[in-house]
Amino acid sequence: MDAQKDVQPPKQQPMIYICGECHTENEIKARDPIRCRECGYRIMYKKRTKRYSSGCV
């Protein structure tokens, strides 16, 4: 039995980016242009995840 046949590719979920100019949140998918929908600024910052990390304590 091959376990690879049961694995489905991940869905195209949009990531949330924050504009470097106007600080609004933008949902951007993998093939979308990196540009703020409000002001058109091209420098975007990825929003931090709220995942639990057991790293440095």
Secondary structure elements and pairings:
Layout: E1 15-19, E2 25-28, E3 44-46
Antiparallel strand pairs: 1-2, 1-3
Description:
By secondary structure, the chain is mainly beta. It has no helices and three strands. The mean pLDDT is 84. It is 0% helix and 21% strand. It has a domain at 13-48: Rubrerythrin, domain 2. Strands 2-1-3 form a three-stranded antiparallel sheet, with no helix packed on it. GO terms for molecular function: DNA binding; DNA-directed RNA polymerase activity; zinc ion binding. It holds the Pfam family Zn_ribbon_RPAB4.
Cα distance spanning the termini = 41 Å
Instruction: Return the CATH architecture of the domain at 13-48.
Output: Single Sheet
Q: Which class best fits the helix and strand makeup?
A: mainly beta
CATH fold annotation of the domain at 13-48: Rubrerythrin, domain 2
Name the shape in a single word.
Answer: flat
Radius of gyration: 16 Å
Strand order across the largest sheet? 2-1-3
CATH homologous superfamily name of the domain at 13-48? RNA polymerase ii, chain L
Give the number of helices. 0
CATH class of the domain at 13-48: Mainly Beta
The profile of the biggest β sheet is: 3 strands, antiparallel
Mean pLDDT across the residues is 84
**Which ranges are low-confidence, i.e. pLDDT below 50, for 5 or more consecutive residues?**
none
Strand content: 15-25%
Instruction: Report the helical percentage.
Output: under 10%
**Secondary-structure element sequence?**
EEE
Strand tally, please? 3
GO cellular component, one term: RNA polymerase I complex
Main location: nucleus
Keywords: Metal-binding, Nucleus, Transcription, Zinc, Zinc-finger
Subcellular location: Nucleus, Nucleolus
